[in-house]
């Protein structure tokens, strides 16, 4: 038996082929499942923006601490008025204010993405102008709204 | 510095060498300005007060550094600190990350060697700002590898002033994060470099930098988990290459051996779950490489790809099963509490209240995101999107870093620090790509060629670029007829866009500086309040009281206080403390909490058992300081209740409305506990506000409920100027304990009435009562 092996194994290649003289490769029909596909770019962008929205809204804070959706104060007539922003506390928030702020951040991000999309070649002029206008509006709105939110929350900001 | 490709050599004119020199000069100048600005923006507290170590943890680091410079490195590694955690002591050499102390010690030694005698305190105070400049440089290098040099400059500028990073690295904040973030980014830069080149040299450098990181911070677990996950994702995406194999294998083995040299880490890298991902990926990578090698030899066999693919999956499942088995049988320790609470966020609340009582470990709200990152928050997903569009090996890494860092930053405020470099890098990429187009006034629609040639030439400023690209643009841009007015329109819009972006960056700088100046520069050991006319009133009570302790107590005196102040007391007063910020022994802390929460007699028993000489409490009621011990008292109760549930119950300290109040409606148990008595002793006679009655607590805004009491076993030793720090001396037992009504008790038990009550039998005090057991048959019914 030993001589047989030595005769057959003339090179390293022969050594690799040795098991296949004894064992036969099974005729398997294994395939990667067809529904596993690399996600398209738009899907990835959508997933990115949604997860970013949730994280910056402080969703984890909401899950752990469970603050109310909006606060409430009573004015001098005894009516309950809702309070949107928890004032003066940096490490506390209501659910709605977190979602609102995260929406503003995502809006700003979308504005910058649009700003980059405008410089694709071969775009009609109307589309291009509209896109630039849109992105300007998005970024401005996001910035002003965030500034207002912070002023409500902490009146001494930037003073 | 410029990597000139052969294709573009035709476009390079004779002035290329001088303009290349000009580009590097501008790069160097910008980087120097970035370093200087990062250094200066962290100096606010030095200018306002003086150069003093801040907060709590840095005091321990400072004390260790002083010990090391006085006694040498090996004595520091073998140091057993008997001043802390009396009577247990603390093995400092084995429970500390020595990187910070070694760094300052080295700088100190170097300066003394060249005869500049700087005091160690100055080095410790200014270490963090200096390292922030180095971090900016490391971020520049990392972003240069990921995208381009222009993005690198933006990233360096962002990280130099970003409040998320400067909050933990102001001058005076002498903590591990000061050097750890630099080590983190530098290790990541070397890792990306070694993946791109696949050379042994860069991988070994990565391992050395990883060693520095392990010596610096417990957050090295982030590196040793992110890099294997990166390798795993590259394998999944089919981006395997021999460079990956070489770099990860060398990094893992060398990094493993080097990381085990730190005494604190010891054998953890082979025995705890936090390091198992790295080991598992290492084995998987060996198997994958082996299969890849076989595949190259056995191409002719049918279906060889699917077979090997499935074999890899089977190997990974086997490795995972082995790890799970080893964890189950106990050979591998499970995830420790600190890291497990990042996944299961309710775990710490139920089991380890100390973790959740730290204010930095609370989950993050949107304001923290905005305050720490401002403009970068909007640019961050844009940069991630750009990386997704042009994916390659290193951009997979930064995307993984972004995903994990975002999640962790959402869970814990403290981890915003690890998110900040990633945000700076991705925001710089986004801004750089946008400005690539809009900041160039020449080219209009030929974007793709422009991008290629620019990225090949690696420009810094676009102005010098125009003379080369004029040739490029004019050669290609020939047929557009209505180009002129379109160019005019687009160039106007470009100017507007660039101006707007510049204004936003200016606002970003204003915000960063304002936040660093107002929110993150307080030294915590010196408090400031501003009067109505703007003058400052400095409250220096802490240092005053600690210095009193240092000068007026015997050297072996033992101080009992809550663990927050342990490091400061040990550092400034040089006295023995019972518990300090290391919080390694929960039972000891629970004992102290029980002593604070019990009444005076019970507390005295604990204090004599622990050999306490002085008690120190912090009380903010006179000036309205809200970080005092009465506000922290519920945490003391909770921690004590965790260990002694029968003696301490949290509900006893609430009033009938389930509120925690110190006014008349407070619970009597609260009024009798040691903490209340020590804080409010003699406070009932004090008028804090002329409009309010005496004993008005300005922090809680109520008049206290229990005044005019006496202390039995302690006496007041010192109260600081604004009553913030109050120190009490524990009195020794008097010679004989007099029970007040012992005689009456004795006579009443021997009196006629009780004699009759007991059917004529005598009575023995404290006689044990025997309970008759029931028969088995009767019990069944």
From TrEMBL, chain A:
One of its GO terms (cellular component) is oligosaccharyltransferase complex. It is a multi-pass membrane protein. InterPro entries: OligosaccharylTrfase_OST3/OST6, OSTC. It is found in: Membrane. Its main location: membrane. Coiled coil: none annotated. Keywords: Membrane, Transmembrane, Transmembrane helix. Pfam families: OST3_OST6 (PF04756). The chain crosses the membrane at residues 42-64, 94-115, 127-150. Belongs to the OSTC family. Component of the oligosaccharyltransferase (OST) complex. PANTHER family: OLIGOSACCHARYLTRANSFERASE COMPLEX SUBUNIT OSTC (PTHR13160). Specific component of the STT3A-containing form of the oligosaccharyl transferase (OST) complex that catalyzes the initial transfer of a defined glycan (Glc(3)Man(9)GlcNAc(2) in eukaryotes) from the lipid carrier dolichol-pyrophosphate to an asparagine residue within an Asn-X-Ser/Thr consensus motif in nascent polypeptide chains, the first step in protein N-glycosylation. N-glycosylation occurs cotranslationally and the complex associates with the Sec61 complex at the channel-forming translocon complex that mediates protein translocation across the endoplasmic reticulum (ER). This is Oligosaccharyltransferase complex subunit.
TrEMBL record, chain B:
GO terms for biological process: post-translational protein modification; protein N-linked glycosylation via asparagine. Residues 559-615 form the STT3/PglB/AglB core domain. Belongs to the STT3 family. Its EC number is 2.4.99.18. Pathway: Protein modification; protein glycosylation. Its cofactor is Mn(2+); Mg(2+). Keywords: Glycosyltransferase, Magnesium, Manganese, Membrane, Metal-binding, Transferase, Transmembrane, Transmembrane helix. Pfam families: STT3 (PF02516), STT3-PglB_core (PF21436). The lineage of its organism: Eukaryota, Metazoa, Spiralia, Gnathifera, Rotifera. This is dolichyl-diphosphooligosaccharide--protein glycotransferase. It comes from the Eukaryota. Residues 768-781 have a biased composition (Basic residues). The chain crosses the membrane at residues 25-47, 91-111, 123-141, 147-166, 178-195, 215-237, 244-264, 276-295, 307-333, 366-386, 398-431, 495-517.
């Amino acid at each position: 038996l030993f001589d047989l092996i030595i005769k057959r194994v003339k090179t390293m290649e022969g050594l690799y082929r040795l098991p296949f003289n004894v064992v036969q490769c099974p005729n398997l029909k294994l395939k990667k499942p067809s529904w596993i596909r690399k996600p398209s770019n738009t899907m990835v962008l959508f997933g990115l923006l949604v997860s970013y929205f949730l994280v910056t809204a402080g969703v984890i804070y909401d899950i752990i601490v469970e603050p109310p959706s909006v606060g409430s104060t009573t004015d001098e007539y005894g009516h309950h008025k809702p309070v949107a922003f928890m004032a003066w506390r940096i490490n506390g928030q209501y659910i709605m204010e977190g979602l609102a702020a995260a929406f503003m951040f995502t809006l700003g991000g979308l504005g910058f993405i649009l700003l980059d999309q405008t410089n694709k070649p071969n775009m009609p002029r109307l589309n291009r102008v509209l896109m630039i206008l849109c992105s300007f509006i998005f970024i401005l709105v996001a910035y002003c709204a965030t500034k207002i939110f912070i002023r409500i929350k902490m009146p001494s900001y930037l003073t | 510095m410029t990597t000139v490709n052969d294709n573009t050599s035709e476009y390079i004119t004779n002035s290329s060498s001088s303009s290349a020199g000009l580009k590097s000069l501008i790069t160097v100048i910008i980087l120097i300005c970035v370093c200087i600005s990062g250094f200066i923006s962290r100096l606010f507290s030095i200018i306002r007060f003086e150069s003093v170590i801040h907060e709590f943890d840095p005091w321990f680091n400072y004390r260790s550094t002083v010990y090391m410079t006085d006694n040498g490195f090996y004595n520091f590694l073998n140091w057993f600190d008997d001043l802390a955690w009396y009577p247990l002591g603390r093995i400092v050499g084995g429970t500390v990350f020595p990187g910070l102390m070694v760094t300052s010690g080295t700088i100190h030694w170097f300066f003394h060697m060249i005869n500049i005698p700087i005091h160690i305190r100055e080095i410790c105070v200014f270490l963090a700002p200096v390292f922030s400049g180095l971090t900016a440089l490391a971020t520049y290098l990392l972003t240069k590898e990921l995208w381009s040099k222009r993005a690198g400059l933006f990233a360096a500028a962002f990280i130099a002033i970003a409040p998320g990073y400067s909050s933990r690295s102001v001058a005076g904040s002498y903590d591990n994060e000061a050097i750890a973030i630099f080590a983190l980014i530098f290790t990541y830069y070397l890792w990306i470099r070694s993946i791109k080149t696949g050379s042994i040299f860069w991988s070994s450098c990565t391992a050395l930098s990883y060693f520095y990181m392990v010596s610096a911070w417990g957050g090295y677990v982030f590196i040793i988990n992110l890099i294997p996950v990166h390798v795993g994702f590259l394998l999944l995406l089919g981006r395997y290459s021999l460079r990956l194999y070489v770099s990860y294998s060398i990094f893992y083995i060398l990094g493993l051996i080097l990381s085990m040299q730190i005494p604190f880490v010891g054998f953890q890298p082979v025995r705890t779950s936090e390091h198992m991902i790295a080991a598992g990926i290492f084995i998987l990578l060996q198997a994958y490489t082996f299969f890849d090698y076989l595949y190259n030899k056995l191409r002719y066999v049918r279906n060889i790809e699917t077979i090997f693919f499935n074999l890899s999956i089977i190997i990974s499942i086997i490795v995972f099963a082995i790890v799970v088995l080893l964890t189950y049988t106990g050979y591998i320790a499970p995830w420790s509490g600190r890291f497990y609470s990042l996944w299961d966020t309710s775990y710490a609340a139920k089991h380890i209240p100390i973790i959740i009582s730290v204010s930095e470990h609370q989950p993050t709200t949107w304001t923290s995101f905005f305050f720490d990152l401002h403009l970068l928050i909007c640019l961050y997903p844009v940069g991630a999107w750009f990386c997704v569009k042009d994916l390659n090996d290193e951009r997979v890494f930064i995307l993984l870093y972004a995903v994990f860092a975002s999640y962790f930053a959402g869970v814990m405020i403290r981890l915003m620090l690890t998110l900040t470099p990633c945000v700076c890098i991705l925001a710089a990429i986004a801004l750089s790509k946008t400005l690539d187009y809009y900041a160039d006034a020449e080219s209009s629609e030929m974007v793709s060629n422009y991008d290629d040639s620019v990225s090949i030439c690696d420009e810094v400023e676009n102005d010098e670029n125009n003379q080369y690209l004029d040739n490029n643009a004019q050669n290609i841009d020939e047929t557009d007829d209505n180009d002129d007015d379109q160019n005019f329109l687009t160039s106007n819009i470009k100017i507007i866009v660039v101006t707007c972006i510049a204004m936003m960056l200016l606002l970003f700088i204003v915000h960063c500086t304002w936040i660093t100046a107002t929110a993150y520069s307080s030294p915590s050991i010196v408090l400031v309040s501003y009067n109505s006319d703007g003058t400052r009133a400095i409250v220096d009570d802490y240092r005053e009281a600690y210095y009193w302790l240092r000068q007026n107590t015997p050297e072996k005196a033992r101080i009992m206080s809550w663990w927050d102040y342990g490091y400061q007391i040990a550092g400034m007063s040089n006295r023995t403390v019972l518990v300090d910020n290391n919080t390694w022994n929960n039972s000891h802390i629970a004992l102290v909490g029980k002593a604070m929460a019990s009444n005076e007699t019970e507390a005295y028993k604990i204090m004599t058992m622990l050999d306490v000489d002085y008690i120190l409490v912090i009380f903010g009621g006179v000036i309205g300081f809200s970080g005092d011990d009465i506000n922290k008292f519920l945490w003391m109760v909770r921690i004590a209740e965790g260990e002694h549930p029968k003696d301490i119950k949290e509900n006893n300290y609430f009033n009938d409305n389930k509120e925690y109040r110190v006014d008349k409606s407070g619970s009597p148990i609260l009024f009798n506990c040691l903490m209340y008595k020590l804080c409010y002793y003699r406070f009932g006679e004090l008028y804090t506000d002329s409009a309010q009655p005496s004993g008005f607590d300005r922090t809680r805004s109520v008049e206290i409920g229990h005044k005019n009491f006496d202390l039995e076993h302690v006496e007041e030793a010192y109260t600081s100027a604004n009553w913030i720090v109050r120190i009490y001396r524990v009195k020794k037992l008097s010679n004989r304990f007099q029970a007040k009504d012992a005689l009456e008790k004795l006579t009443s038990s021997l009196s006629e009435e009780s004699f009759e009550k007991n059917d004529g039998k005598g009575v023995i005090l404290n006689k044990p009562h025997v309970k008759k057991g029931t028969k088995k048959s009767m019990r069944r019914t």
